[in-house]
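Think of the structure tokens as a kind of shorthand, similar to the way a musician reads notation: each symbol stands for something richer, in this case the local conformation of the backbone. In the example below we present two proteins back to back. Begin with the first one, reading the sequence and then the tokens, and try to describe in your own words what changes along the chain.
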Amino acid sequence: MGKKKVLNALAWKFSERILAQMVNLAISILLARLLSPSDYGQVSIVMIFISIADILVNYSLSNALIQKKDADNLDFSSVFYFNSVFSVLIYMILYFCAPGISSFFGYDGLTLVVRVLALRVIIVALNSVQQAYVSKHMMFRKFFFSTLAGTILAACTGGYLAFCGFGIWALAAQYLVNPFVDTVVLWFTVKWRPVAKFSRYRLMGLFDFGWKLLLSGVMDRVYIELKSIIIGKFYSSVDLAYYKNGQQYPQVIINNINTSISSVFFPALSNEQENKEKVKNMLRAAVRMGAYVLFPCMIGLAVVADNLIEIVLTDKWLPCVPYLRVACFTYALYPIHTANLDAMKAMGRTDIMLKLEIVKKMIGVILLMAVLRHGVFMIAFIGIIQAVISIFLNSAPNKKLMGYGYWEQLKDILPSILRGGIMGLIVWGVGLLQMSAIVEIILQILAGILSYCILSALTGAIEFTSLLKILVPGGKRK
């Protein structure tokens, strides 16, 4: 696969994520001002179960289709029909479990919300095969338009309902409309259609790759949502809202950068899975670029957190600032995790991924049980400890698979850590000046961007010149 095609796909995917997240961020700010933390907390409780269901119908077989080099229409059609039936079964389970979920958390009104939001599972199941087809064929321009349409219409729907006083249903509508519109747009813009054939043999072949990936994904999602369940059950929905909102803004950056790199990186790696040297070079480039872009963003966001929350969400959301800062340092390492796992996945080593996930989640549960009664902040803080441990665990197998272990990876990301740290000190220094919050945060952002660019140029960062070539047409390397 040519470098130009990969860069073009990355540009489209990154543009899609940037525009989608900008719209989502704007509507999130609006809804946070109009709705109460309790509304957010109750929807967060429902989304615990919807997110796990999404993984069940949208993770293993879709990735198996992308990883299989000779996947044809029969493969895609078999997965499409299986996902359709399986998603209806999952919906029925959620439908009948809704009263129990509502009773467990002590919110009588959640039953109907669960039953309505669970429809998302069926929509996502239909959409997953379309997305796998688009990703496998590197048609990321299609994603740009479908995601943009879904995001804008969902934002308008949620905003309108919030203004009309529908409360929790404004958030529910936003979560439903987005994947529905995305699915409809892809259906009309992508030529793929399921054929009237189903192959159990093909499906089992894909499942042989995907079941380990599915278990890994489910364990990861269940563990993430276990924290939310504990906070929602043993603390309060308001505490859960602060915790979730604190994670939201780092996630905006993560979704833009990590999803863009991973969505393009995995299919590109899958096409080169037999060439270990090429896979290593691509993995190294992804690790370096992810660290170069993400570290300054996360450090900068952590420094300006107080002013940011006060300006965009008002004082009522200031209790989420500590969780936001913890999330910044937790998520800073995510692109490195993802790149290592994508390399294993592309080479068909989902068995290693499953073993790693079991070990990581055993450590995570032990840490979670240790801090369970020590407050929501400690529940959030163990994420940083897990992220550091995961770096060593996820990179260790790639030392044997392609000769790229954690010491070499640490050497590749260390310059970005140092540049980001120096930039953070400069941004913090600007914050010591006595100015209004708006003026201060604008100056902090400008100082951060300028100082990081200067540091990159002075240290000869390869990633800096590579980005210049993409962002500035005709740009030349120095």
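Once you have a description of the first chain, move to the second and do the same.
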Amino acid sequence: MIKESLAQLIEKHHLSVNDAAKVMEEIMSGHANHMHIAAYLTALRMKGEAVDEITGSAQVMRKNAILIRTKHKNAIDMCGTGGDKSDTFNISTIASIVVAAAGVPVAKHGNRAVSSRCGSADLLEGLGIKIELPADKLGYCLDEVGFAFLFAPLMHTSMKHVAPVRKELGFRTIFNILGPLSNPARVKAQVVGVYNRLLAEPMVEVLKALGHEKAMVVHGMDGLDEITLTTDTFVAELKDGKVDTYYISPGDLKFKLRAASELKGGSLSDNIKITYDVLNGVEGAQKDMVLINAAAALIVGGKASDMAQGVEIARQAIDSKAALKKLEELKNFTNRR
């Protein structure tokens, strides 16, 4: 199937959902050789990944993932595609802890660094959280703590067939897009950051096709795959079966415009310090960035009706030290024998 699909892609023809799924099955099962996988990923990238191609591929990724069972029907995820090459601090990781502290369960799907020096897995591990847990314990962690970190390499074991090819290619492929679409807890609500404004609307259409009830796909107009504070952020929001697009402006939420340099992360130790600064309520660009991103997650999680309310709920979770306590609770739970 992969060879036939390559011929279509070279002619700039889009694949159907079914054909894209068949190719992904071939890749995930180990039946496609590395040369064909590399050619397929390259041809897709050069043509531009279409909604049907992403949807079919995501269906297979989700089917092959280790399922995380939870009692929470309203669990959410917040993550980005990565690849924005911005070297920001771990915004969505810290924000997800704040969101969990505010009462919205978070199944945080993540990996090690992609476009920065410190990814979500690196940070949580550095904070003393055990990230390599079996599926049953992860489900229990989500049930009891209201937060679980789903470490992508353990959740998607079939990815071993494509990992060497991705590493050799060295550029963004459809798998950067598929990561946020393949949450093993099968969440129905999500905030997804994308590295390209043109990817926002296709991504939200894919989430709709996959059965999501609520979603916000965001792209900072400075290039960030987050809601940004340096300028406006484009949003494609799925709600009640409809997609709306609009912009979020920091000033509308009474945030100061910030310089990109104020959002930099750096090394693991830098990110650990930033995490504790934010969770201890230290005022500044980093706390504001966490607040504005947590607000979006609180909307899709049904806790806030708009961004302004979301910001205030997130602020309360930080200032009351509930978020700091949530981090300690997570650390204690994951290190139990």
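Compare your description with these statements about the second chain. The first helix runs from residue 2 to 10.
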